[in-house]
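Q: Structure for this?
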Amino acid sequence: MPYWYFDKKDIRNSPSFREGIDYETEQRYRREGARFIIDCGTKMDLGYNTMATGVVFFHRFYMYHSFKTFPRYVTASCCLFLAGKVEETPKKCKDVIKTARMLVDDKKFKTFGDDPREEVMTLERILLQTIKFDLQVDHPYSFLLKYAKSLKGDKTKLEKMLQMAWTFVNDSLCTTLCLQWEPEIIAVALMYLAGKLSKFEVVDWIGRNSKHLRWWEMFVEDMTMDLLEDICHQVLDLYSQSQQQASQQDSPPQTQPEPSTKPPPQSHLPPSKLKPDLVAPPHSAIPTLGAQYPQRVAPPPSGHYPNPYPAHPVPIPNIHPVHAVVPPGSQYYGHHRPPPAAGRPYYPPQ
Amino acid sequence: MYEYSADTIQSLNLDSLDLGDKKYDELCQIGCGAYGTVFKARDLQNKGNYVAMKKLRVKLNEDGIPMSTLREISILKQLDTFEHPNIVRFFDVIHQNILSDERYLTVYLIFEHVDQDLGSYMEKCPPPGLSASKVKELTRQMLKGVDFLHSHRIIHRDLKPQNLLITRAGGLKIADFGLAKTFDYDMMLTSVVVTLWYRAPEILLNLGYGTPVDIWSIGCVMAEMWRLVPLFCASTEVEQLKCIFRVIGTPSMNEWPENISLMWSSFEQYSKVAFSAIFMDCCSKANSLLESMLTFNPADRISAADALEHPYFKEKENEPL
């Protein structure tokens, strides 16, 4: 079975790099592809899990193929199309293409060829072969909710931290972090970052024991500060890149609302430091700690083959009270999820 | 600046793509049924070990590969991460004719190859048949495997000696599960006769079904291990039901399900035969387990988890029968 985590040097030495695309350009292509998937998904009212799954497919795909062979917007559309089916939120191929058409300029849309639908359908088979039918992907979101539930402290502050961490996870999709680390690890690091920036110091948590110095030791063992910092920096680097890029003519503007027309970010990042809405989080993706939203109750477990067209939007995860939790992952097939396999390594082999 | 490829994906040369080398060398066909064709093959990248290749023709719909197929293959992959000892290992999935625009996609699922199934194992078994401890051990392993599947909400639907594999070490592994939805497409196209012998009454009566259907099949297989002949064998649904009622007794009118086309009155009234009379050399605990598995009403049938707690399995192996 394939192993989906890579060393940084493997990520640098990618098929695109071997075909002459430099590292920075590839990173930009990855960012643009990921962002396109999120924008497209948001327009189509898809849930955060579907979008994140599409993005992970996208990053994995380009570990085996080059951006020269496969134009990124076609691949991105295909990844979102497949993720829709996998996460039980299917969209018609022609609708994905219609949305894509609205988001990219004529020149880019030319890469879809004369028959865009057939192009995406053909790519679906290549994509499936490349990602080896490894369709079930976990995301940091569900871990953020799990961690937040165990932390003690001021509820408002905790909620702020969680929202900020959620935004960081959204934005982290534009990095190659999902190719480097398991979602549990990314969730710890970005929760830690959010705690720092929102000035919420976690001093106590449910299940704390004398051996624990830090809250995440309950969930992830042997997590070094170096690793933590490295992950945070990879996300923070995005914000400086996005500023640089704004001044670069090389990157054609995306057909998106200007930052000024965007709704104010839901997260509470210090505006002087960061541009949190590099990836504008869909509103439904922001978790809440209670009162603001009407309480949603977890949908009853569906039958063996649930209705493939569930009602939209995806329920808002609500982290209080415990019984109302809709862990994002539980939507998957309506099945109980197995716990992570025992002995699963937290670190990629050196 | 923008390095778009001039070609579209459809015009790509397949050979130029790194879609993996030839990895399996097909040897011979080892099975063919409603559930697809199975080949024995060599895994070229793994010391030439034998693998079982199951060939699937997936019908593409207007939105590509059906969700149900994606789901089922994905679940197979997920289940395999548990490496359950009583479930056949699933190694790989590959597919062909990627670039052709046919209406079918050929998918090969690569499974662990096991030489022998329970059917041939029983055939080869010299008189006086399987020992009591062997029957118990194999039944336990069947139940463990099925309990695992059920806990992941997978119903096998077609348990029978032919898809219960017996390893050289004497372990039992369940094969051929989890693709029910995918095969439903193909089933309509094939006219392969599917055996009814292990089918639960609710399937024969065309009622909805759930996990209890697998328990019924295990009961039939367990009985067959004792007797070395199938317990209920008929070639039509109605005959199969009659066969069943001759042993467990025709259900009373109250027990007969509502809203079904088959009338209760169309069946002869058989009274229940004491299991101890059929399985004479079988201990009373084994008979009691069999009875709770071969129960007409699926709601009253024992679950796999409960069956594993049955006194039959508590008793020491070498105790006299």
